[in-house]
Automatic annotation (TrEMBL):
<protein>
    <recommendedName>
        <fullName>RNA transcription, translation and transport factor protein</fullName>
    </recommendedName>
</protein>
<dbReference type="InterPro" id="IPR019265">
    <property type="entry name" value="RTRAF"/>
</dbReference>
<dbReference type="Pfam" id="PF10036">
    <property type="entry name" value="RLL"/>
</dbReference>
<comment type="similarity">
    <text>Belongs to the RTRAF family.</text>
</comment>
Amino acid sequence: DETEFRNFIVWLEDQKIRHYKIEDRGNLRNIHSDDWPKSFEKYMKDVNCPFKIQERQETVDWLLGLAVRLEYGDNADKYKDSTPDGAKNADNTAKNAEPLINLDVNNPDFKAGVMALANLLQIQRHDDYLVMLKVSFLERLTQDAIAKASQSKEGLPVALEKHILGFDTGDAVLNEAAQILRLLHIEELRELQTKINEAIVAVQAIIADPKTDHRLGKVGR
């Protein structure tokens, strides 16, 4: 129901997500306005939702996952030691050792993450999210990419906390991922600059006058 859907979005923002200041929620709260879809689309962009306004099921899953993360962040001490009733006697050590074995495919965060990747890679959707993750994504990997990923590359450990990201996503995990991606990007830029410098030197060696002494800024004798 359209009215219930809009009320649900307003409730999530008012009670859990709270991305906007109270005085800035007027357009979103005006659920009977003809401009509400535009306000909702702007809201999705503001909270960095990866889905389009037409993808309601995926959007709902994603917003619920965001709400849960924020709820946990506000009450971490309350929830950190909580366990599901049916899992109190489970072997937590074995669970932690093989997290993919105990992956909850019905988890809204998992579904939203898979759909975001599918949209990014332009992969055809499948009703089974786990199948989409295991099969569809693997089909997009080329042999070159697999070979490159298999190559071991030694390097020095990096302390992420010493590198300023410059912005805040509102999620500690996303912040850390963004820092890693930025460092990798800087490394690639450095490799590119090195290759450019080598190319310039090679060209100069071919076209330069042997009598040129670039250190003195003179050409010829």
